[in-house]
Hints:
Blueprint (H helix, E strand, L loop, with lengths): L1 H16 L4 H4 L2 E3 L11 E4 L12 H14 L6 E7 L2 E6 L1 H15 L17 E5 L14 H16 L3 E8 L4 H13 L2 H6 L1 H18 L1 H15 L3 H25 L5 E4 L6 H11 L3 E3 L5 E4 L9 E5 L7 H16 L3 E5 L5 H13 L8 E4 L4 E2 L2 E2 L2 E2 L3 H18 L9 H18 L7 E2 L2 H4 L7 H18 L15 H11 L1 H11 L3 H20 L7 H25 L8
Parallel strand pairs: 5-6, 5-11, 6-7, 11-12, 13-16
Antiparallel strand pairs: 1-2, 2-4, 3-4, 8-9, 9-10, 14-15
Helix pairs in contact: 4-18, 6-8, 6-9, 8-9, 9-10, 11-12, 12-13, 14-15, 15-17, 17-20, 17-21, 18-20, 18-21, 19-20, 20-21
Amino acid sequence: xxxxxxxxxxxQLSRVLALPPxxxxxxxxxxxxxxxxxxxDFQLSVDSLLEDNNHKSQLDTQDxxxxxxxxxxxxxxxxxxxxxxxxxNFKINRELLTKAVLxxxxxxxxxxxxxxxxxxxxxxxxxxVEFSSPNIAKKFHVGHLRSTIIGNFIAxxxxxxxxxxxxxxYIGDWGMQFGLLGTGFQLFGYEEKLQTNPLxxxxxxxxxxxxxxxxxxxxxxxxxxxxxxxxxxxTQALSLWQRFRDLSIEEYTQIYKRLGIYFDEYSGESFYRxxxxxxxxxxxxxxxxxxxxxxxxxxxxxxxxxxxxxxxVMRSDGTSLYATxxxxxxxxxMDKYNFDTMIYVxxxxxxxxxxxxxxxxxxxxxxxxxxxxHVPFGIVKGMKTRRGDVTFLEDVLNxxxxxxxxxxxxxxxxxxxxxxxxxAERVGLAAVIIQDFRGALLSDYQFSWDRVFQSRGDTGVFxxxxxxxxxxxxxxxGCGYLNDLNVAxxxxxxxxxxxxxxxRFDEVLYMSSQDLQPKHIVSYLLTxxxxxxxxxxxxxxxxxPPDVAGARLHLFKAVRSVLANGMKLLGITPVCxx
Length: 578
């Protein structure tokens, strides 16, 4: 595999450069495949070897590369060494490359790419990932989709790398909005509607009470009183709130099931309503609390004492706020999980909030605040159904399924399926996830149903189609034992390009593990699918001699295996028929 070849190259370089091989391994990278020309298998950036890069001209670097290339010798592993612009290029023995890559994919299975030396010095950590976090008593808003799928990807990747991951869904189940909702239900709620379509009814009530509160200050006063009763533990208010919470989680569980996502812990802000009082006491004991003219309690974050930057931690009526409850949650999680890293997946609009929470934790004396990390993401624009503006995730999932069923029905090559609805939903979800993950997470993007469901091009539908097609190939022709593989039958340019690309999988996983961006894996899988599509046309299995057919089947099986591995990391369930 790549790491074995990297080590072989690093060992040869270490003898010439008098450096330990370990210090060179991460500087040696597999070369991306090119449509225009045959490329080397690995390259070393000469810049990484030069200490004072800023004062080295391109000619100096190229001269250094040329002199290094002259000192290195080919062997049974490396068959060609050349100097490129600022690089040293290495070509691996073709038959050795073929045998090693296919054998590694087969032996490692779902761990292919994860056993690489790139991860050898990776300490195993306890990691908490907080994601999704919908607000109860409202239908699951589409705005929470990105947090849900991004958080799931990060948790999947960290888990695959051997870390101990705890997935937390921190539900928005406390706060002034429940004062409004409780008051709204008392004014406009109907028990029958709550039983038949609970979250839709609560949503309608919330919209109505907000409108009333705008025009009638008495409604706002009633809402404040209701929330105050909640905070004080009033049994009647808590009983109504508990019903709203139970009904919400019941519906959310069905949504997560459709998405193929699970959590280790469902917690909520309500759990920390009492613990937030301990936070206020600690802040007070450190002399950090100040009262404003309006009676709110704040902490000065300016560092200059001029209150130019403050965080409000308690309202004038004594009720807690989101920030106070987040502080209590972070402290409780450290006590419970003793985490090495805690990742919050929330949109970029929350950036300031998390900066304040992390700063407050430091001011409270918790040096582990530096282990907390916010992964921000941009906004999805234009996600509409045929009926117009979409608000709820359930509508998106239903639209995904119906459009995909329609598309599949219109394609002549669609196979007879045992459960077409399930297949359509899995393919549709892949389409939505790939469109979301193609760019940088921080970027806003324009959602397009037409682009999402294209069966050709860089889409999730194309990934699923490629996987299903390769499954069909294996099903039709079977696949012999690797020991019978004749590597000499896989020396065509199309085969070599696929093998070179398979070499890079560990590097792509490494990049995503460093910046938590799924785009590296998405780009890799799309390229792999395009390479497989070309090879499928040119490297015929049917009517080929047995050793040629067998070798090609092994190659296609390796592609399917790596494709499935990558898709699962992204949160996509591969389909075998469509």
